[in-house]
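Weekly structure sync, notes
Attendees: PL (lead), two postdocs, one rotation student
Agenda item 3: pending single-chain targets
PL asked that the sequence for the first pending target be pasted directly into the notes so everyone works from the same version. It is reproduced below exactly as submitted, 373 residues in total.
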Amino acid sequence: MERWINRQRGATMAMVVLSLPVLVGMLALSIDLGLMTLAKQELQNTADAAALAAAGALREGLGRTAAREQAVGLAAANTVLGNPVTLDPYADIDFGTYDVATGQFVSGLPSNGLLVVSVTARRTEDSPGGAIALCFSPIFGIETANVSAQAHAGLSATTQARAPVELIVVQDGSYSFINEIDYAKDGDKALVGLIADVATDGDQIGVVSFVARAWRERGLSPLPDETPPINSAIDNLHYCEQQSWLWLDPDNYYGTHTGAGIDEAVAMFAEHGSPDAEHVITLISDGMPFPEARRDLAVAAADRAAAAGITIHTVTLVQDADGTYGSSGADAEFNASLTRNGGHAFHTPEADELLDVLIAVATIEVGKARLVR
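Predicted structure, written out during the meeting:
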């Protein structure tokens, strides 16, 4: 019996010795899988926070460049396995839309509706921080692992109850704005589209254009039903298409009478606005009334709007930073001074970021930044 027991002990010892590499491998695998799981969760937290930071920057009208900077900066303040997260501002951050039906992010700026920021936080071989170094798997020739996480944050409607919004787009059509007018029209329609997508009973939009005088392009019209005619009015609004018009029809097209545009919007609210709605003017311009006497007229018009309880947001698109005062000049600082009743002043020198800014205006009134993944 003793000899039999000794033989069994020997066999058990042999089995333990033979199975030891497998046991060590399983232990190594479980430890490194735990490490990768932790890294995945930390990367997901970082991606979520960075995407929300970027969407928040867009909501403030800071544009895509600033949104990338916000995301990169916030990610760097987070760590994965004790090391800061480094985002590639172009490879890891993208802008587009989110297809709810398929659950897929689609790269490319939307013509209207929801603008989404996609952020990928990663520790991979080709990422700035490199792949995750494993602890025990190198015994088996596996030294690193690629781990990543993705988040999408968008500017969307708030779920909270709100008062109806009546918003009038007051669009500069002066000759000094001729290079920007097509971008402005696209942005105006994006603003209309976003509000129309989340419209509640009582939401309305109107359109005013101005050069040397103001035109009521579209009276306050309910959303979403009147979206097509509102967009048609934007497409066909008055603007100074040729420099010769300055001299051939000066009463309509010489100079920039910002005050006339604001006054026309105030009159529209007085005639057709609802007392239960929030009244908002969004002024899109290069910010420079001309001749100079019209500067004081613009300030007085903004004061009249404020006295009537109207909020004024200003959006300044200035592509020529060195423009001088006159037919080709601009004045972002003056335009910003026309904000009233808590309105925001936005400014971008990049025409293709005007869309971002006007979407930000819409979300200030009807939305917020949220995760959509």
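Discussion points:
- The first strand starts at residue 79 and ends at 80.
- Residues 19-157 form one domain.
Action: rotation student to compare against the earlier draft before next sync.
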